[in-house]
Amino acid sequence: MTDNTQVQRMSLDAALDVLARRREEQVVVGTMTANGVWRQKSPHDLNLACIGFMGGASTLALGVALSQPERDVWVIDGDGSLMMQLGSLGTIAGAAPRNLLHIVIHNGVYETSGSQPLPSQQQVDFARMAEGAGYAQTASFGDAEEFDSAIDELLVTDGPTLVQLYTRPADRFYSARPTPPGSTPALARMWPPVAEALAKE
Amino acid sequence: MTAQSIPADLLLSAIRDAGVQDVVLVPDTHQRTVLDLLMDDDEIRTIHCSTEDEAIAVSAGLIIGGRRPMMQIQHAGLYASVNNLRGVGLDGQFPIVMLIGLLGRDPELDPEDDDSSMVRLCRPLLETLDIPSHLLDGPDELHRIAEAFDEAAERHGPVALLVGTTTS
Description:
The complex is a heterodimer.
Chain A: H1 12-20, E1 27-31, H2 32-41, E2 47-50, H3 57-67, E3 73-78, H4 79-84, H5 88-95, E4 100-106, E5 109-110, E6 116-117, H6 126-133, E7 137-141, H7 144-156, E8 161-166, H8 186-200
Parallel strand pairs in A: 1-2, 1-3, 3-4, 4-8, 7-8
Antiparallel strand pairs in A: 5-6
Chain B: H1 8-17, E1 22-25, H2 32-39, E2 45-48, H3 52-64, E3 69-74, H4 75-80, H5 82-90, E4 97-101, H6 117-120, H7 122-128, E5 133-136, H8 143-155, E6 159-163
Parallel strand pairs in B: 1-2, 1-3, 3-4, 4-6, 5-6
Helix pairs in contact in B: 1-2, 3-5
């Protein structure tokens, strides 16, 4: 059994920097705390976000990956998010998209609601779960330099790939703001331009 | 009016005529004869999900990527997927068409008069969510599948089709 109390952990910034340096024309679906950080590090018209349907990031990305088999699709998932729709590991493994990279930010807490512990915080291991579900490859990193050294090989190997990144909670408490009257929800604003960009190619 | 069983081959033809490229599904006992045909079909891809909320998100992703999916689930799955239906379907404004089996419905009754809460509450729930629903109570109503795609596109949101009795 994995002992998460003993693993090395990197900062979320360092983990996402490794990915941002490899960003080209991938569609990237972010969620929760990492989404805001990612959008600052890698602003792009092919960014999507899972906001308001926690747990749905990986299957939203799966749909894009299956519809665009020649384009790489990344999802930057959270551990609490994945726990909410854990069956998605089986769904993704069954659909077997070669172009899907599933990053799981493993900080062990529900950071946006105040860093309450995840169920099975001390032992849950998403890489082993994904391996058991049938992902083509899985890996775990707690050190940004090790992740940086290994990611290129992982990216050129057929997926679906799950990479579990052990990070330190950043203690970014999130408080939802009221939606301004008459405004269009974020996802409805976000996806049509992405669909349009994908349709052009 | 008594609901009539829809032959699986006719239902599949209507799905094909509506231009469906992917059927995103969680197996529905009620529509198992159609599922058997779909899984052997060379043109329409089936994508099997663990849960119905995943099916909603997968469908949305497929739409972003330019595909024309249709969901196929059971009424119990509709109840299980409400947050994704709201957050993806409604807030995301995705034109998702859902084929939902009313397993256990008394074909002699309107669904709202059924003793089974799973049958009885289905349309009121959809109405609460402001999602249009249409009964498929026989082969003569299969034209509603293609029409549902037009309606979903016009509304920028989900539309439900309720399969009234077990397919044959």
